[in-house]
C-alpha cells in the first residue's frame, strides 16, 4: 500500500472537522479532559490521533458526532464544525448520517442477534429501502460475508470489532472515526481493517480518523498525525515528520516505529559522539520499505556482510530463554491439558467446538504466549485454565487439581485471570477499592502497603478515588493489571494485556511482569502483540481452529513463515526488515539489529571510515 506523507492545508470552507478552543470537564472531575483544544482536518484526509492514555483523544472525537455535549454532560465551551456546519443545533441522529464511529468499547454498539441483522440495522432504522444490500456490502468490505447467519455472541472479539466497523460503514458516511482499530485483532485482520480504511479513503474520498497507539500502522497507512497532551493539540503534521519528532513522542511515552528507532540508534552508534542529539531536520525511515532503502544506502558494507545467500532465515538470539531451560521433566506441571475438548451450545442446540483435543503441559518458570488468529481459541483456553469453563471431554489440571473437582473460589485464590474486556472486572465505585477487593475479602496481612505499591507501580494513585468504569480504555486496562498484580497469584492469566495501552504503559507492563516473577510461578498471555512476544515470552503456543498448530520458542515460531500466514500472525517490523534485506537472521529488536550492523561494519570497514558520520 503506498504511503501518503503529504499534508493538506484546510480552511473552514473545505474542512471535514474544525474545533476551536474547546474545553470540557466531566462531572465530578476537577481537571478538564479537553483544555483549549483546537484542530482542523481537511475533507478526504487520513489522520491518526496519538497521545498517552487519558490525554483526551476519545473525548475529542466524541465532539464530532455530538455525543459531547448532548449525551455526555459536563462543563463545555468552544466551537465545533462538521463539514462546514456548526454541530450546535444538529442532533446526534443527523450527525450519524455523516459520521460513522467505531468505539473503543465496540461491544456496546452491537445490538442485533445475528451478523447480517447488525450490519443492516442502521440503514433499516433510517427507513432505507436497500438496507439489506447496504448491510451485505459493508460485511463484504470487512471480510465477514461468509458468516451472515452467525449469532453475535458466537463471535470472537476480533470478529465483533470487524462487525462494528461494518455497521458504521453501512450508512456510507462522509467521515469515519475508529477508536483503537487494531487493539483486539490478529495482525492479518488488523491489516485488513487498515486496507479497508485505505480503500475508503483513496477510492471513495472518505475522511478517515483513527485513534491509534501502533505507530507502524500509522506509518503504513495514514497521511497525517495529530499529537495530544493534557487535553490540547500540540501539532498536526505529515506522518513522516510527526513520527520523527522523537523528543515529543518520548515525552508522551510513544515509541516511533521499530525501523525508525533502529535508524536513530544506528545513526547515534556510528558517530563519534553517540550522546549528541540528532539534528531536528533529519528524517529517518518510518516504513519497512523506506528502511530497506535507507540501510542499503547508509551501511552497504555491513549489509553485504550480513547477507548469506541460500540459507533459510533464522531468528537471532534475544534475551528470552528457551523453553528447555525452564522445563523440568520430573516436576509436576502447573497446568496440564489431556485430550481436552470444549464446545459451546448455540441456539437450536447446535454445538460449536472451539477447543479440539489439545494436549500440552505448562511448567514452573515459563513465560507462555498464546497466539493465533481471531477465533483460534486463545480466550477459551484461558477460561479453561481459570476454571470458568469446564471441558466436555478430556481434562484440565491446574496446580495439581483437576478443574472438574475444584470450585471457582478455590482456584481464585491461586489463579488470577485478567479479562479481555476491562469493564467486566469492575464491581466497586473507586479504583482503590477495585485493587484492594481481593486482599480485603481474604484479610491478607500488609494489604495497605501492597495496594499502595501497586497503585503507584501502575500510575493509578492520582486516579484511586475515580470510578474505574468512567476512565479511558487504557486507564481501565491499567486498573485490571493492578488487580491481578495485587493478588500475587501462583498462575497469572492475561487476555490481551497490551490492548488499548500507550507505549509507556506497555513498557511498564513488561517491567511489572518481570517483577511478578518473584511471586508468580507461571504466566500465560493471550496476545496479538508480536513485539511483546519477542520481548517477553520464553515459549509460544500457536493456536489455529482450536488446535495447537505449533509449540516452541519465539525463534522457532517466527522462523516458520508458512505457519505465520496460516495462523493469522505476522513478523514484527524488524523481522520484516531483516527479511527484505535478505539477512540470514531475522533480528527481533532494533537493538539486536544495530548491534549486528555495528559489529560487521567495524569488521569490514577501516576504523577511520567507520567512525565517521554516515548520514546524508
Automatic annotation (TrEMBL):
Membrane protein topology class: Peripheral membrane protein
Electron transport is among the record's keywords: no
Localization (cell): Cell membrane
Chief location: membrane
Entry GO terms, CC: ATP-binding cassette (ABC) transporter complex
ABC transporter domain boundaries: 17-255, 335-570
Cross-referenced SMART domains: AAA
CDD domains per the UniProt record, alphabetical: ABC_cobalt_CbiO_domain1
Superkingdom in the source lineage: Bacteria
Keyword terms of this UniProt record: ATP-binding, Cell membrane, Membrane, Nucleotide-binding, Translocase, Transport
Family annotation (InterPro entries): AAA+_ATPase (IPR003593), ABC_transporter-like_ATP-bd (IPR003439), ABC_transporter-like_CS (IPR017871), ABC_transpr_CbiO/EcfA_su (IPR015856), ECF_ABC_transporter_ATP-bd (IPR050095), P-loop_NTPase (IPR027417)
GO molecular function, one term: ATP binding
Secretion signal span: none
Coiled coil: none
Annotated PANTHER family: ENERGY-COUPLING FACTOR TRANSPORTER ATP-BINDING PROTEIN ECFA1, HEAVY METAL TRANSPORTER
Family: Belongs to the ABC transporter superfamily.
Protein name: ATP-binding cassette domain-containing protein
Organism name: Paenibacillus xylanilyticus
